Amino acid sequence: MRKDHRLSRALHVLIHMDKIRDPVTSEDIALMINTNAVVVRRLFQGLKQAGIIHSEKGHGGGWTLQKSLSSITLLQVFHAIGSTELFSIGWATEHEKCPIEDAVNNEIFDTLEEARCMITNRFSEITLDKLVPEVFKHS
Hints:
The chain is 50% helix and 6% strand. The chain contains five helices and two strands; from the N terminus they run αααββαα. The N and C termini lie far apart (39 Å). Pfam families: Rrf2.
């Protein structure tokens, strides 16, 4: 099963952008996260719509942060990049009249929903400035 690295990549880049402060091109960001510029632009579409970043075209243009790291939460980034699923666990639906399958599915659903709530609540409490390693805080 493939893992979705968009949240990790977006957080990584946003924190670097805060430290760089100058506009950063999609090509430079792509090198930073070992991908291509098209992937960066696709990743940044939602962040731009959410008002987290801004882009300028032309010479000297690029991506810049619109908000301070202390005002951006993990949950805002999670939603802005279009993430919807935290888990890839699913349930079987081949035997819709089977009470055992129904009980199993209900328990899986309830447990995942409880975990999803815990994670999204925690994501809403964490701002990006809290992710900056100590070594970078004074630079």
